[in-house]
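Predict the 3D structure for this chain.
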Amino acid sequence: MEIVIIISPLVGAILNLLLLGYEKIKKAESEHLNFLKAISGTVACSSILLSFVVSLMIFGQESKKLDFLLWIPIEGYEIKFSAIFDELSKTALLYVTGVSSLIHIYSVGYMAHDRGFIRYFMLLNLFVFFMIQIVVAENLVQLFLGWEGVGLCSYLLIGFWYSVYENARAGFKAFITNRIGDFGFIVGIVLFLIYTGGLSFDNKVPQDKVFEVAFFLFMGAMGKSAQGPLWLWLPDAMRGPTPVSALIHAATMVTAGVYMVVRIGNVFGAVDPSQLVFWVGIITSIIMGFFGLFERDIKRILAFSTLSQLGLMFAGASAIPYTGIFHVFEHSFFKAALFLISGILMHEFDNETD
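Done. Predicted structure below.
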């Protein structure tokens, strides 16, 4: 049953890709295009709702690990494509699929008159699929693939209306900034492999090497969650459609860094790494909250609010990991609601954001 959670958004993305190809080949006109949009929206929303329903069904069940296939066989070592369904991942699946379901439904009306409707839902489904990969990943390579997939989808969704230069530039800025963090993440993965002889989260890093590994892995978290000096991309990410802003800020991309810190607790739970995460989080929270006081654009105000809240999540995760995840859980719902309400206000006031 658990496989449905993972596969369903991918199936939705593939079906929407086929619809998009059909639309381009046939050059669908108004009436025909509306029919394709109806199918696209139904498929996209149903696929995410199915993942959410199954996530609810398995929430109270025992933890389990599922091995799907032998992925990368290397001499003396092998990497399996596996999924972990424990208390942490099942909690994360609830807010990822739950909030994403609401955003998908909201998007049907928000994007109804947009020519890129089908492309939008294809990317949205794919975005959620990659986030689920991060949540259920059993090893660092699998997590990294989901990590990069989320980054790619965010680039395409932030710059969704790419004909406007500022929108394309915002997407590119997010992409480049995340690559800086990902460089550190890759170095951290390599060091983790060298020092532990494997890539499973259960592997123990030697005490004298733990800060070194944590520092580079945390660079990836800072890029994805816009912490420290890598915060610059997030306010500009508001150039995308409002539901995309809600998805990025509430349930998916920016919370991935916090989730990673909690998931690799045997690295970040050590004294020195936890202090690093704590102080970066606290300092970012204070500074971003201060910057937000001088903004007038409603979506940028919410963006700086997210940056500040993310800092608190990291601080909580470094002290008592599940307090950080609890904050991620409740923040995903209230921040999604704030962004969706801002979209309604902008629509009613003729796109006024001041």
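DSSP finds 14 helices and two strands in the chain.
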